Amino acid sequence: MMARRIRRILLVCNNYDNFALAEDGRIEVQIQQEYYELNLSNPPAIVRAESLLDALELLREGEEFDLIITMYSAGQAGVTDFAVETKKYLPHTPFVLLSSFSRELLSRLNLRDCPAIDYFFCWNSSSDLIIAIIKLIEDKMNADHDILEEGVRAILLVEDSVRYYSTYLPVLYTLILQQNNAAIREALNEKQQLLRKRSRPKVLMATCYDEAEELYSRYKKNLIGVISDVGFVMHKNDLPETEDLHAGIRLCEWIRQDNPTMPILMQSSQEEMREVAERIGAGFVVKKSKTLTREVSEYIGREFGFGPFIAIDPQTGQEIARANDLCGFEHLVGSLPPAAYLRLSRNNYMSKWLFGRGLFELGRKVKEMNTTSEEQVLTQRKVIADMVHDYRIHQALGVVARFDPATYNDTIWFARLGSSSLGGKARGLAFLNHVLLKHDLYKHWEGVRVMVPRTFAITAEYFDRFIVDNGLQYVINAELSDQEILAEFIASTLPQDLIDALRQYLSVVHVPIAIRSSSKLEDSYYQPFAGVYSTYMIPYTDNADQRLRMLTKAIKQVYASVYFASSRGYITSSGNVLSEERMAVVLQEVCGSEQCGYFMPTISGVARSVNFYPVGYEKPEDGIVKVALGLGKAVVEGNQVLRFSPKYPNHVLQTSTPELTMRDTQQQVMALDMRPEQFRSSADDGVNICRLSIADCEKMPSLRRVASTYDFENQRIVDSCFPQGPRFITFAPILKFNTFPLADI
Description:
Helix 6 (127-149) crosses helix 7 (162-184). The chain contains 27 helices and 28 strands. It has 745 residues and is an alpha/beta fold. The longest helix is centred in the N-terminal third of the chain and has 23 residues, at 127-149. It is elongated. The strands form 7 sheets. The chain has a 6-stranded mixed beta sheet with strand order 13-14-15-18-16-17, sandwiched between helices. It has a 5-stranded parallel beta sheet with strand order 2-1-3-4-5. A 5-stranded parallel beta sheet has the order 7-6-8-9-10, with helices on both faces. 39% of the residues lie in helices and 17% in strands. The model has no long low-confidence stretch (mean pLDDT 85).
């Protein structure tokens, strides 16, 4: 979108206007800021010429320009000749004439006899008008592709009064950008911000009936509203004396007949036209009103879907609820009273509000669901709320979102706090998140969601600040024991903005959390650092302050593990320098459920793409999987767990005979102790991890999904937990009977 842009502008103006633009209006600064927000390079350069002769000299020298803007001032009556001359050099470059408002000037110029002047605006010494002109021309250049092919929305402005459209355009674009900035705040990273910015609604301007009819017919499926004068000329080159005083009324009646729900704002200098507008079902403003711009702004915000989403009680006309973002919209729609919902549905307000934020796909789906039946409201409300929630989750997949306390919510799956390095582990997880989205694995298996657990990465800059702010640099070269180092780090204070961010993070996460190391050296090529640093787990508790204390303590312990004796020895032996190591931290939701006072997953494990020790039918390229009941710590620490090839899930050597099943299957289950008092300061990151026997898990629901039972009477293994007898972790219900598509996944 916005593929065609204005790169170079020729501005012809005298010294005073040049000074007003450069110093008072700061026009170049504003344009550069706009391009910076769009994440685009090369903002349009403004080349100034003090006279028409100087400008012509530049054109004769072969200078190329995408836009020519000329200020009209005394002594430059040859501006029309200059416009004609420029078209000889740059026939497709728009020519804009700016002048202070004067009826005498308009009649003297007689622009209808000079088609070389493409646009005429009243100059009010405001740089906002220059910005609006650039945007208007760029919108026209990109209209066909962006509106018809990409689905961008548009506003149709019908006005032949130079004075008034010179006033409306800056107001319109200011409102559009304000709306767009609100939508941008919901974007999760720079790429989504750029997309939202470029998908802002466009403005299409018509100065006669023919143009208005043509623009409406061409873009009507993507229009979010129409602003129209009451009287204007019928054809492009008609004289002002031939103005049809009811052309706007006929246009609005024609539009209303074609689309009864299209928002229309009529404007006139005659107050009596208000009754006509009300009869058509259009809004109305008086052009001479002292509060014209405020009235226009309020109508556009209310009817074009700009500003917050507002629900009105149809009987009293009072506001009953509002939402400022998509998250609020989701919760509001799901609880709207039927009468208020029907009102919003009938005038397509919900879809307009979504379209105005660049959410085209979502807006189209909502628009197709309009209903007039109260019986369907309850069902439809839930469908829309679920659809919005699913969209919010989907836009977060594969994205590393910037953490913003104001917008962080339960649909953001991977967020980062800080601008420096994510560290090796977080970078690998972010890449995996990207791969799942790229290959569309999120919904690939019916009834299954393949996702990286909710992740929050604290970048390495907070480690640096923690070390410096607390004066811990001396630890690098000091000969201290692990316990002494740990005590120093626990007694130190994390940066306050990090603590505030953690408090907001905990308000969203309601399960146990794994606090994982993500150092600069971890997961680097040919240099494995797995298991060198610590990973702590903290349980969930309703006491928010207690959770925050446990979380901050765990982060400090991960920081301290950089300087433990084992870490120092490994860093030195691998040829690295301890002072160069920097630690980022990854916070992840622990997968699983609480069972009998413990928290653990039903399935955990490690899958490898190459099997170096194939057995029977297995081949190296078939890969190998090791799975366990409980936390995956049992797998990575080399405990006895189940091994199978995903290509042959029914052929597991360890369960091929009863004797092997009893001897070679998992004997211990690792689980997180949910009692907060079990988590304490320790160099041992497994301080609150319990090792349970299979018998200890008898009452846990997870056991029934993965265990088999030894039948004493028949001397055999039964793939069920219904009989009485010793249990063995075989994963038979999953691998043999495919109750869950683990092998396929």
